Amino acid sequence: MTSTDQALPARPAGDYGTDAPWVPWVWLGFGALYLVIAVLTTLGHAPGGTVLTFLVLGLCFVAGGLLYVHSTKRGKFEVWAELLAGLGDPPPRSVLDIGCGRGAVAIAAALRFPDAEVTGVDLWRSVDQSGNDPSATEANARANGVADRLTLLTADMTDLPFPDGSFDLVTASLSIHNVKPAAARARAVTEAWRCLAPGGRLVIVDLPRIREYAVTLGELSGSPVRPRGIGWRMWWSGPWMRSQVLDVTKVS
To answer: Which residues cross the membrane (predicted)?
Structure first.
């Protein structure tokens, strides 16, 4: 079996919270504030240019907030569904998701590859994802019928508790950028590469710091590595905060 032959939903069943949950409220809050000011300046007979400025600012902030909400609630699921479906043969038999959160990618991988054992690791910080807790991930796994193939561990991605070459597929979605400083992020990427079996794939989706990871992976793999774009569905308020993907195969 290569992967499931069934049509899979872009978004697995369950509740996956919101990434960095305070961010969309900031965007939408400023948008609402500027729109209120635009209304008040109109009522106060302010110059048209002033009203237009506040109106445009308000609409831009609201649009940014809505883009963020779409990315966290729908866009990232669609992107990862396509990335996993495009991995090809042979399918992975062991998957590690680093910074798994409430299981969006880990569960999608378990559904896509029904013969695979999936492991998710996280430090379970709610500042990175709302309601981030192993019990929430377990509930999502049960809702999708994959709880028997998903193992959750509390672990630091800069010091993963696995032997070298333990996994055929290693994924990280919007997680490595939360590690500080840059040297620790490089260590996290190095650990992901260490845990990857020869012939396996490392797939990372992240924000602009992904260029750092590309440099580290280039040194580890011995070949240039470059991130590629994945479109507006993972624009976190706009193109200035867009996600990109690194997809690297570890040469046997």
So the answer is: 25-44, 51-69
The confidence score (pLDDT) of residue 6 equals 59
222 Cβ contact list (under 8 Å, min separation 6): none
Q: Which of 95, 132, 104 is nearest to 14 (CA)?
A: 104
Token reading at 15: 């509740």
Residue 44 burial (10 A CB sphere; 0-12, 13-18, 19+): exposed
| Structure tokens, 51 | 């009203």
Sign of the Cα pseudo-torsion (165, 167, 171, 172, in order): negative
Are the CB atoms for 144 and 110 separated by under 8 Å?
Answer: yes
Summarised one tens digit per residue, pLDDT across range 208-224 is 899 999 999 999 999 99
CB 77 within 8 A of CB 105: no
Phi, psi dihedrals of residue 165, rounded to the nearest 5°: 65, 35
Burial degree of 86 (CB within 10 A; 0-12, 13-18, 19+) = exposed
Instruction: Say which amino acid occupies 167.
Output: F
Is 204:214 a contact under the CB 8 Å cutoff? no
Question: Structural domains in the chain?
Answer: 71-249 (3.40.50.150)
Of residues 192, 240, 201, 243, the one with CA closest to residue 78: 243
Rounded to whole angstroms, the Cα distance separating 11 from 103 reads 11
Cβ atoms of 246 and 217 within 8 Å: the answer is yes
